[in-house]
Design brief:
Elements (H helix, E strand, L loop, with lengths): L1 E8 L9 E8 L5 E9 L6 E12 L4 H7 L2 E17 L2 E18 L10 H8 L5 E11 L7 H18 L1 H9 L7 E3 L10 H15 L5 E5 L3 H27 L17 H11 L17 H10 L5 H21 L7 E4 L16 E6 L1
Parallel strand pairs: 9-10
Antiparallel strand pairs: 1-2, 2-3, 3-4, 4-5, 5-6, 6-7, 8-11, 9-11
């Protein structure tokens, strides 16, 4: 600290009296500093209530330290700090508001002491569209505790941020945008790729995150539950066969629907269209004595049709791809740049098992 000027007035050994502090100056090679508040350093129990502000500290000169402990040079950036420290009866409570402006890491530096945690990813997760990072780090403790260190606690908090960036980036983002780990995936109805209900809310939150964190990219990996999605696709195929009969009838009357899936069949007309669909099926059907197709009840027609619908692995892969494509298209439609969104080919159709999660889902990964 250089060019320090100001006053400390009213120093007293009396317990109830405090001195006023008003100091101003600048950091050598940096911006202005300001220290204001009240102290009573001569009392039996130290009393401090101070605000300390440092502004526009250039970070690039700190490259020797960042190279050693972070493993990167600092290309550019400034930091400002707004600190409030209150000590009453040797108990410290503090607020450490730290503001990074345009913090940009440069070249990699090999250092045995550098952290292995993803510092660049953490910066991308924290940096807003203006290139700013704002941290609010509260610290408290007893001055009589020999293990207590303000710097140590602050570094532990920053270390925890880096660990979260590496292991639970969505939890870190969730603290800002809401959603947390639940943003890591979308669950789907079996056999379906439709984005609806809670999934729509998640997509909207992801869009907001990508808009507010321009430095991050998103991987999308689609999966299926081979058994349950297979049954879902079988049911969907069956329903489309029945609805297609009504679509044909509507077309003859000059009516049309945007797609077969949008057609609704009422319960009273269902047997009619089911029978029409059943007639078109090529599998062997029960015959009468004279060789004609036998009329059978609705449940038996349903059972025979469902039995002869075969779902291949290619159908399941197509479903997984359809899911990822729908999510990607929703993000691109919202204005997210295509170079930030990647569809990743899964190692297996079924995802890694997770408790309370359906296998019929998409997983997201931030990088």
């Amino acid at each position: 600290m250089v060019e320090l000027a100001g006053r400390i007035s009213g120093l007293s050994p009396e317990e109830v009296k405090t001195a006023e502090v008003d100091l101003r100056g600048r950091l050598e090679g940096g911006g202005p500093l300001e220290i204001k508040g009240k102290i009573n350093p001569l009392s039996k129990d130290l009393l401090v209530d101070l605000n300390v502000k440092f502004s526009d500290i250039e970070l690039s000169p700190m490259t020797p330290y960042s190279g050693k402990y972070v493993g990167y040079t600092i290309e550019k950036g400034k930091v400002s700090m707004d600190l409030r420290y209150v000590i009453v009866k040797r108990k410290l409570e503090s607020q450490n508001k730290i503001f990074f402006d345009q913090l940009t890491l440069g070249d990699r530096i090999e250092s045995p002491g550098a952290t292995k945690l993803p510092v660049k990813l953490a910066i991308s997760l924290l940096k807003d569209p203006k290139g700013e990072i704002r941290l609010d780090l509260p610290v408290g403790g007893s001055l009589d505790d020999p293990k207590f260190s303000v710097f140590g606690v602050v570094m532990q908090i920053i270390g925890n941020l880096l660990v979260k960036a590496a292991t639970s980036p969505f939890a870190l983002l969730g603290a800002v945008f809401g959603g947390g780990e639940h943003l890591e995936y979308l669950e789907f109805d079996y056999g379906s790729a439709d984005i609806k209900g809670p999934n729509e809310n998640k997509i909207n939150t992801l869009i907001k995150i990508l808009q507010q964190r321009p430095g991050i990219k998103l991987d999308i990996e689609g999966h299926v539950d081979p058994e349950k999605d297979g049954e879902g696709l079988r049911q969907l195929t069956f329903d489309r066969k029945v609805k297609a009969q009504k679509a044909k009838e509507m077309a003859k009357k000059g009516q049309s629907a945007a797609s077969v899936d949008e057609i609704t069949i009422e319960s009273v007309e269902y047997p009619k269209y089911l029978k029409m669909a059943y007639k078109e099926e090529k599998f062997p059907k029960p015959k009468t004595i004279i060789g004609l197709d036998k009329d059978i009840p609705v449940p038996e027609m349903e059972k025979l049709m469902m039995t002869h619908i075969v779902i291949e692995e290619t159908d399941l892969r197509s479903l997984a791809s359809h899911r990822t494509a729908k999510v990607r298209d929703a993000l691109l439609k919202a204005g997210i740049e295509s170079e930030r969104v990647f569809i990743v080919e899964p190692k297996s159709l079924a995802p890694e098992k997770k408790e309370n999660l359906k296998d019929s889902r998409i997983n997201f990964k931030i990088r």
